[in-house]
Amino acid sequence: MSHLVAIGVGCRRNCSGAVLTQLVSRTLASWPPDLPRPLPRSLFTIEDKRGEVGLHEAAQALGMDLVFLRREALAEAMPRTQTRSARAQALFGVGSVAEASALAGGGPNATLIVPRTSDNDATCAIAADLSHLLDRQP
Fold first, then answer.
1. Structure pTM?
2. At what angle do helices 53-62 and 17-28 cross, to 10 degrees?
3. Are 10 and 123 in contact (CB under 8 A)?
């Protein structure tokens, strides 16, 4: 899975699409101005959240695909995360949903661009593999 920009999201049960949309938009606005800014393509989250209507609503409102990842993919990305959640660990067996989803969705060379942000029962993080873009800069 190699996307230029991967937005990882997590949420508590029944979180609204509006809350998630607002958080993703605010997190995207935190993109560092000194980095190239490719357009995000997809929201990534853990497969356990497949039934969360708010995630589907947010993806639709943002015009992005919603990709559900297996717990194993998030576990593989855990060494590259910056934050850990005891709640996520207890519920899903992984210490991060938003950051690990972003990193797993961004591919093996992805790094966190915007670490986990949270608000109103939702979390969001952005990861990207910018190596090929950075190689082209003068």
1. 0.90
2. 50
3. yes
